[in-house]
Design a protein that fits this description.
Blueprint: H1 4-18, E1 23-28, E2 49-55, E3 58-63, E4 66-71, E5 76-81, E6 96-102, E7 107-112, E8 120-124, H2 131-134, H3 147-154, H4 161-166, H5 176-185, H6 199-220, H7 228-235, E9 254-257, E10 262-265, H8 267-270
Antiparallel strand pairs: 1-6, 2-3, 3-4, 4-8, 5-7, 6-7, 9-10
Length: about 290
């Protein structure tokens, strides 16, 4: 799933390629991807692109007075084309969900692999009209997201830290992959209760969060959209690397599986050498 660093890189890529352009056509290929109907999608045709922004994991293309906001979900992506085919896309054919054609013949496709379709596209007058955007927590790379703000956000939390980091209403943009990476950098168990964090641990976690996301954004900046997935995988130290040696200590990276996801961690770095039991089989070790 694209998370804050990849969405930020896509934002920068689109901002550079859409600058000075206008929308010529907006062509849906999957009706299910559109979550709004007023204004209609065709309302952005002829509108100049004014900006490309990001809200957590959401992309926001401002065209005229309207905002085309996109959540790529687990399997969505942006595919750029210097020359978009003249023929309109056939609905229901392949992964294509929506095509945006610009006034110079270039454009981009929104695609979604697999059979479970969760990508969401909204055309709105303000991004705050989208409930999920209105409910977002602060951006963790904002200047205002300092240690004091982070500590205040976690005050009263009684969840395990992995779940808290992934809550978009608490902190915007962090998902399964980067929460694994942040916790590995902080040398912290994913199942440590938030209320058990002391001041030093909060300071370490905040620094690891900012550094992990900042470094990922820096690695991805300027990377073409088609190469961002490979760049993300190459930068991971534990996520997606079950059975491989930890790059810090050499211990074997372990995994805990759930019904629809999994997490990865290093026992030596994060849990005092103790492996976490698979939640499907037994109670997790703390």
């Amino acid at each position: 799933m694209p998370e804050l660093p990849e969405v930020e890189a896509l934002r920068g890529f689109l901002a550079a390629h859409l600058a000075g352009r206008s929308v010529a056509r907006a062509l849906p290929a999957a009706v299910s991807v559109l979550k709004t109907y007023d204004p209609p999608l065709q309302a952005i045709e002829g509108a100049p692109v004014a900006a490309v922004d990001r809200h957590g994991k959401w992309l926001d293309v401002t065209a005229g007075e309207l905002h085309l906001v996109v959540h790529l979900a687990r399997a969505g992506w942006v595919r750029w084309q210097d020359h978009v085919p003249e023929a309109p896309p056939r609905p229901g054919r392949g992964p294509l969900a929506l095509r945006v054609v610009l006034d110079d013949g270039s454009g981009f496709d929104l695609t979604e692999a697999g059979t479970t379709k969760r990508m969401a596209v909204h055309l709105v007058r303000s991004p705050g009209e989208v409930p999920a955007i209105a409910a977002l927590g602060p951006d963790p790379l904002a200047d205002s997201f300092d240690l004091a703000a982070f500590t205040a956000l976690l005050a009263g939390e009684r969840r395990r830290i992995k779940g808290a980091l992934r809550d978009q209403t608490l902190i915007a943009g962090i998902g399964n992959a980067y929460s694994d990476e942040i916790l590995h950098a902080a040398r912290m168990s994913p199942f440590k209760p938030v209320q058990n964090l002391d001041e030093d641990e909060l300071r370490t976690l905040h620094a690891s969060l900012r550094a992990t996301l900042g470094e990922a954004v820096a690695r991805s900046r300027g990377t073409a959209a088609g190469r961002l997935k490979a760049e993300k995988r190459s930068g991971m130290r534990v996520h997606g690397r079950t059975g491989q040696p930890c790059p810090v200590c050499g211990d074997t990276v372990r995994e805990v599986s759930f019904s629809d996801s999994s997490l990865q961690y290093c026992p030596t770095c994060q849990t005092g050498g103790r492996p976490l039991a698979d939640r499907r089989l037994s109670r997790l070790l703390k």
